[in-house]
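step 3/5: co-fold with P-hydroxybenzoic acid
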Amino acid sequence: MAQQAALRTQIGIIGAGPAGLLLSHLLHLAGIASIIVETQTRQHVEARIRAGVMEQGTADLLREAGLGQRMDREGLVHHGIELRFCGQGHRIDFADLANGQGVMVYGQHEVVKDLIAARLAAGGEIVFAASKVSVEGLDSDRPSIRFTPPEGRAQEIACDFIAGCDGFHGICRLAISNGALTAFERVYPFAWLGILAEATPSAEELVYAHHARGFALLSMRSPAISRLYLQCAPTEDIAQWPDERIWDELQLRLVAGPGWHLTQGRVLQKGITPMRSFVVEPMQVGRLFLAGDSAHIVPPTGAKGMNLAIADVVMLARALEAFYKSRRTDLLEAYSATCLKRVWKAQRFSWWMTQIFHRFPGEVPFDQRRQIAELDYVATSTAAATALAENYTGLPML
Ligand code: APR
Ligand code: PHB
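step 4/5: write tokens
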């Protein structure tokens, strides 16, 4: 048998995305040991372009955990977003509506880079490029992780608990026996075509645009880099979208008045993202705790994905700290119920943002008029705008 002597840690973490890395960092601050096992290379996870908007509470949490220096230097603080419909912009002012709260525009891969640097500087163990990752003994009090490192023989890590932070396509959720989980899912009949471009953002804040040709979003990563998205068919072939076609379509959908022109530049990256709402319940079985995308997915319209992942691991770190410091198990037992309350509110908001902005196949003209009425209501009613602002900037983490 080509297996080496078992390694030992307190918390075995699968996945080095924001959830797994932040969990490991928070546990370290609480004096709890962990090892992260990740199938991709460090270069891959650090270059993977994902979402880029952090709720106020997420940014504050990263600061409190000593991870805010580069974010505060390079990130962009926004105090509003624009809803654009019928060719006109309407600003939703978070400062006014959400008690001065804002959001931080800072790419998820930058958060990942900061977290990896912090873990490695503190002597944290991350196994990148692992293969054949599996979890065993989830119902016992000695669960373990098996994997093969990039160079070397198969290894096993004996753990007290395992955190499944391995994203939607990971193995942890699937390792839970049939029947123990219930999945709730809605797959949307459209996707987003996204580009990252070397172009000065054409607006100071994010613009969410409703248009007869489909939704468009103007976002950014820095004063020199734009991030833009277009609603497209889920079966769309990216090869059919040369850069010029993308810019033309964005210009049409984002237009705000006759003189308005979208700044263009070199396209650095492009891709198509499917849209789905997904939740499994419960988020824990035996000694395995799911966190982040492994347990739930939101469509990106509400910018909630990374924020939910971070809120989950904050809860999990607190529960594990209570267990190790005072042998309390109540927070661990309540982990799933605590997270799901917030997860479902973010699901509701993400679905709401998605359904007011997108064209749906089979819709009737009534639906478009209703969407415009709803956007107009949000733009003109303080009550409706407050609901958007408090959800967008983030509900309390608990
Ligand atoms: N073994 C080890 N690692 C794995 C495995 C596996 N079998 N399968 C997947 N992984 C890794 C992935 O390579 C990835 O690095 O798990 C990590 C999961 O990270 P994310 O997908 O970023 O998920 P999470 O940390 O929950 O963060 C959620 O990511 O997709 C976005 O919109 C989402 O912003 C949200 C955030
Ligand atoms: C992004 O900048 O990638 C982004 C911003 C807002 C969203 C989704 C994605 O709602």
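step 5/5: annotate
Residues 51-53, 206, 217, 219, 227, 300-301, 303 surround P-hydroxybenzoic acid (ligand 2) (CB under 6 Å).
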